[in-house]
Write a structure and sequence with these properties.
Its cofactor is Zn(2+). The chain is α/β, with parallel strands linked by helices. It is about 20% helix and about 30% strand. The chain folds into two domains: about 1-150 and about 305-340, Medium-chain alcohol dehydrogenases, catalytic domain (Quinone Oxidoreductase, Chain A, domain 1, Alpha-Beta Complex); about 155-285, 3-Layer(aba) Sandwich (Rossmann fold), CATH 3.40.50.720. The strands form five sheets. Strands 3, 7, 8, 11, 12, 19 and 20 form a seven-stranded mixed beta sheet that branches. The protein has a six-stranded parallel beta sheet with strand order 15-14-13-16-17-18, with helices on both faces. Strands 2-1-6 form a three-stranded antiparallel beta sheet, covered by helices on one side. The chain is globular, with a radius of gyration of 20 Å.
Length: about 350
C-alpha cells in the first residue's frame, strides 16, 4: 500500500508499505479521505509538533474516513464495506482518572494519537490506503454522511468541545477570533447549538469568506483595522496567535468568558493580559475532545454542512503539493483534502470500495 510519510523536516514521501493485517480486536479500514491538519504541516515543515519530535519516519494523518475492508478475530457487529471514521485517541495504561475529571478522557496524561511522534515508537496515522484500527475506535457514519464529510468529524469534534466549554450559547452573541478550519467549524457548531449572532474575525479575506459560508453572521477583517465587537460575553479564540490575546481580552465584556481553542506556542511569547484580571474574565482552555466525535456525526446527519470548508482536493500521489497549498496563506485554502484511491460516488453512501476490498 502507499502511505504519506514524513522522514524529517521538509522530507515528505509517498512510501510503499506492507498491507496491514487485522489482529485480535481490530479491523482494517480502506481509507478514502483525509484532511490535512496543522500538526501534519508542523511535522513536515519542522520535524516536530509542539513537544513531539520526529525520530523515525511517521505516517501522517488523524482526520480520516473510509470503509471496513477486513474484520479481525474477536470483532462482532462490524461488516466489510461499513463506512466509518475513526476516533484517533488510544489511552495508554489503565485509563483511570480522578473523579473530578470523570469523562474528560482528552485530559488523560498518556494518549497515543494517530499521526503523532509523542511516543517512541511513533503512532502512525491514517494517510495510507489501509489502516489497522481497534474496533472500539471505529465510528460508523450515519445515513447521508459520506466518507469525504466523515473525515472531518475529528476537527468538528474539536470545535464542538470548544463550544461546550463556553457553556450554554443558545441565543447568545459570540465572537470567534480566527477563521482557520477550526474557527470556521466553531462558527458552524455555534449556529448548530442555537447561538445568536456569531461574528468571526481574521486577517484573511479568503478565510472570512469560508467563515461566512459556514454560517457566520458577521465578519471583521482585522487587516483593515476593523475592531473586534465590544463587550462580547463569549469569545472563542481560535487563532492561537499570542499577539491576538490582548485585543481579545479587551473586547470581552467584564465578567465574560474566553475559550482558548487555538493552540498557543509552547515557548515564551509576549502577550498583553492585564484585562484578564481587571475585567474578571474567565479564560478556559479547550483541548481536543472526548465523546464529541459522536456528536459531530449526529450534527452532520442533522444538517451541519462541512463542505464549504473543503476548498482543495488532491490525490494521494500529489500529497506534497497538497501540503504546500495547505501551508500557504496566499493559496486561499481552508481544509485541504487528500483522496486515497478512486472517488466513491457521493450520491451513494453505501457504495463499497471494490477496488480495495
Amino acid at each position: 500500500m502507499r502511505a504519506v510519510t514524513v522522514h524529517g523536516a521538509g522530507d515528505l514521501r509517498v512510501d510503499e508499505r506492507p498491507d496491514p493485517v487485522a489482529p485480535e480486536g481490530h479491523v482494517v479500514v480502506a481509507v478514502e479521505w483525509g484532511g490535512i491538519c496543522g500538526s501534519d504541516l508542523a511535522y513536515w515543515r519542522h520535524g516536530r509538533s509542539g513537544t513531539a519530535v520526529l525520530r523515525d519516519p511517521l505516517v501522517l494523518g488523524h482526520e480520516i474516513a473510509g470503509r471496513v475492508a477486513r474484520v479481525g478475530p474477536g470483532v462482532s457487529g462490524v461488516e466489510e464495506g461499513l463506512p466509518v471514521t475513526v476516533h484517533p485517541a488510544e489511552l495508554v495504561g489503565d485509563g483511570r482518572m480522578p473523579e473530578r475529571l470523570a469523562g474528560r478522557t482528552n485530559l488523560y496524561p498518556r494518549v497515543r494519537y494517530f499521526g503523532s511522534a509523542a511516543f517512541h515508537p511513533h503512532t502512525d496515522g491514517g494517510f495510507s490506503e489501509f489502516r489497522a484500527v481497534r474496533a472500539d475506535q471505529l465510528r460508523p457514519l450515519p445515513a447521508g454522511v459520506g466518507t469525504r464529510e466523515g473525515a472531518l468529524a475529528e476537527p468538528l469534534a474539536v470545535a464542538l468541545h470548544a463550544v461546550s466549554r463556553a457553556g450554554d450559547v443558545a441565543g447568545r452573541d459570540v465572537t470567534v477570533n480566527g477563521a482557520g478550519p477550526i474557527g470556521c467549524l466553531v462558527a458552524a457548531a455555534l449556529k448548530h447549538a442555537g447561538a445568536g449572532r456569531v461574528t468571526v474575525a481574521d486577517i484573511s479575506p479568503a478565510s472570512l469568506a469560508v467563515a461566512r459560508a459556514m454560517g457566520a453572521d458577521g465578519l471583521r477583517d482585522v487587516s483593515l483595522g476593523e475592531p473586534l465587537p465590544e463587550d462580547a460575553e463569549i469569545v472563542i479564540e481560535a487563532s492561537g496567535a499570542p499577539g491576538a490575546l490582548g485585543p481579545v481580552l479587551r473586547s470581552t465584556a467584564r465578567g465574560g468568558t474566553v475559550v482558548q481553542v487555538g493552540n498557543l506556542p509552547g515557548t515564551e511569547a509576549a502577550a498583553v493580559l492585564g484585562d484578564l484580571v481587571t475585567r474578571e474574565i474567565t479564560w478556559k482552555g479547550s483541548y481536543r475532545f472526548s465523546h464529541e466525535i459522536d456528536d459531530a456525526l449526529t450534527a452532520m446527519a442533522e444538517g451541519l454542512d462541512v463542505r464549504p470548508l473543503m476548498t482543495h482536493t488532491f490525490p494521494l500521489d500529489r500529497a506534497e503539493e497538497a501540503m504546500r497549498v495547505a501551508a500557504d496563506p496566499a493559496s486561499g485554502s481552508s481544509k485541504v483534502m487528500l483522496r486515497f484511491g478512486p472517488d466513491p460516488d457521493p450520491t451513494d453512501p453505501a457504495h463499497p470500495r471494490k477496488d480495495l476490498l
